[in-house]
Write a structure and sequence with these properties.
single chain, Rna Polymerase Sigma Factor, Chain: A, Arc Repressor Mutant, subunit A, mainly alpha, RNA_pol_sigma70_ECF_RHOBA, about 170 residues, transcription regulation, sigma factor activity, 8 helices, RNA polymerase sigma-70 factor, WH-like_DNA-bd_sf
Length: about 170
Amino acid sequence: MDDHTRQATRLWTLAQPVVSAFVVSAVRDFTARDDVLQETAVAVMESFDRYDPQRPFVAWAMGIAQNQVRLYLRRIQRDRLVFDEDVLVQLAAAFEEAFPEQSPSLGFLRGCLDQLEGRARELCELRYGRDLKPTAIAESLGMSGNTVSKALQRIREQLRACIERKVSFEKGMP
């Protein structure tokens, strides 16, 4: 290990408890805390040659940690798509059209939609909330139109299966 790396490691080891406490206070998700702290450590080590030894190292490392926390918060904001009432109404209408014989069970749709996460939730929002066609969704997400169409088909099947499970459970069938 060269002197430069040894010095960076020594300073990071001293600053890490303070930086860790900051990350823990700012990031609620336990697993994300570790990721943000690790990303901070990597950023500190990668940018150590830009550190000015005339300034306190802890303050410099905290600045990097703040940037990493901001990046994390931006990421989770984008990931959290919440369906509004219009989206739910449009999805229910789409299900009624596709499965008219199952329309009494559409009351379970909200619970099934709440179980969608990540890309599935985003695709539903774009298709039914914003009324975008698969080709427009594909362009905005950098995917192929066929991939989007297939994903939407799988999501509709997933929602249908969820509704059917809830109906079966309510009727007392396992």
